[in-house]
Amino acid sequence: MKVLAFNGSPRGENGNTDLLLKPFLEGMREEGAEVELFYLNRLRIKPCNGEFACWTKTPGKCVQEDDMTPLYPKLAQADVWVFAFPLYVDGMPGPLKTMIDRFLPLVKPFFELREGHCRHPLREGVKGGKVVLVSTCGFWERDNFIPVVEHAKAMCRNAGREFAGALLRPHGGGLRLLLRLGLPLDDLFEACREAGRRLVREGRIPEELQKKVEGELMPLDQYVEAANATFQAALEEGKVPDL
């Protein structure tokens, strides 16, 4: 199994998202998956210019030359795409969406009906596969992820891929802070690792593991109090919050 993972956090390896992504990918490697991880804050990917040259003038090839160029053959052959990111304004951060917009050369311009809905057929040499989300959110409630999960499912329908599950961590914007405070998170990270193993073995992340990753870390009122205190201290000191 070939897995292509993208961390769309602007903080890269220093962000909370990476704390969930790393054990998840480790679990897949333990089951024999071939995993490549890319940090978008290290890549230069320009926005799609929307002229459709990749459909007509240079079929299957984007006319822009940047760090997307070597990713196209990897995307075409990957069995699993993993998109990891912090939730920003009810969706994924801009750099990740910019990259996904550049997936256009992977499909043909023609319309076909799949389950009675207009779609684009995959280009020759582009396999179908699965998509997984890994995401953290500063707000306490799980329902903040609903818009981006629906977005991912719609993208799967267009890309001829299966949505294989999501590791979603509400009130996870301060995981590194919680670790420093001594909150036990080993069970959370082990659930992420087991989710990776099960994805390789079973083709999707079991619902019980998804729920375990989403489980409450601390009561709502305590979380709100702690978050507000952290930002108040940062304001008074004129510093970036230590999250």
In brief:
This protein has 243 residues and is α/β, with parallel strands linked by helices. It contains eight helices and seven strands; from the N terminus they run βαβαβαβββαβαααα.
Task: Please supply descriptive tags for the structure shown above.
243 residues, Rossmann fold, 5-stranded parallel sheet, 8 helices, 7 strands, globular
Tell me what the structure shows.
This protein is α/β, with parallel strands linked by helices and 243 residues long. It has a single domain (2-218), classed as Rossmann fold. The protein has eight helices and seven strands; from the N terminus they run E-H-E-H-E-H-E-E-E-H-E-H-H-H-H. It has a five-stranded parallel sheet with strand order 2-1-3-6-7, sandwiched between helices. A two-stranded antiparallel ribbon has the order 4-5. Helix 1 packs across helix 6 (186-202) and helix 6 packs antiparallel against helix 7 (207-214). It is globular.
Strand order across the largest sheet: 2-1-3-6-7
Report on the biggest sheet: 5 strands, parallel
Give the proportion of residues in helices. Answer: 25-40%
Number of DSSP-assigned strands: 7
Name the CATH superfamily assignment: Flavodoxin domain
Shape: globular
What is the name of the CATH architecture? 3-Layer(aba) Sandwich
Structural Rg = 19 Å
SS-derived structural category:
alpha/beta
Oligomer: single chain
Low-confidence segments, given as residue ranges, are none
CATH class: Alpha Beta
User: How many alpha or pi helices?
Assistant: 8
N- to C-terminal separation?
35 Å
- State the order of secondary-structure elements, H for helix, E for strand: EHEHEHEEEHEHHHH
How many structural units, i.e. domains? Answer: 1
Strand content: 15-25%
